[in-house]
Amino acid sequence: MNETATLALSEVPQVYKRHVFACFQQRPPMHPRGSCGASGAQPLWERLGKQLEASGQRDIVMTATGCMGFCQAGPIMVVYPEGVWYQPKTPEDVDEIVRTHLLGGELVERLVIVPHI
């Protein structure tokens, strides 16, 4: 076997229990696509980060992203490994996502969106 062969996907260790990708894209005002930043993402993601830190769970992390392609739906986030897209609008929505999905393992169905490509 070649020593430089890549690992099969099944051989790659899962580093985190859950990984949240949160869009921080900020476009200029009145941009035709809009942006999560213009839709109020910053305070929501700051709250998300604080909630995750306060939980003490080191196996749940958040990564700031640029545009994920669904600008008009913003602010948006996606949780892996489940691949669930959320559209939180309030700090309380973020709290519910953390408590129910990230820590509890259950969907917050009222905030789930299904992106259309």
What is the level-2 CATH architecture name?
A: 3-Layer(aba) Sandwich
| Separation, N- and C-terminal Cα atoms | 40 Å
CATH class: Alpha Beta
CATH superfamily: Glutaredoxin
Count of extended strands: 5
The total count of helices amounts to 2
Order of helices and strands: EHEEEHE
CATH-assigned fold name: Glutaredoxin
Beta-sheet strand percentage? Answer: 15-25%
Kindly state the percentage of residues in helix.
Answer: 10-25%
- Average predicted local confidence, pLDDT: 87
Major beta sheet, strand line-up: 2-1-3-4-5
Main beta-sheet annotation: 5 strands, mixed
Protein name: Ferredoxin
Keywords: Iron, Iron-sulfur, Metal-binding
Cofactor: FMN
GO molecular function: iron-sulfur cluster binding; metal ion binding
List the helices and strands and how they pair.
Blueprint: E1 18-23, H1 41-55, E2 60-65, E3 77-80, E4 84-86, H2 91-103, E5 112-113
Parallel strand pairs: 1-2
Antiparallel strand pairs: 1-3, 3-4, 4-5
Notes on the protein architecture:
The structure is a single chain. The chain has 117 residues and is α+β, with helices and mostly antiparallel strands. The chain has one domain: Glutaredoxin, CATH 3.40.30.10. Strands 2-1-3-4-5 form a five-stranded mixed β-sheet, covered by helices on one side. Strand 1, helix 1 and strand 2 form a beta-alpha-beta unit. Helix 1 packs parallel to helix 2. The mean pLDDT is 87. This is Ferredoxin. InterPro entries: Thioredoxin-like_sf (IPR036249).
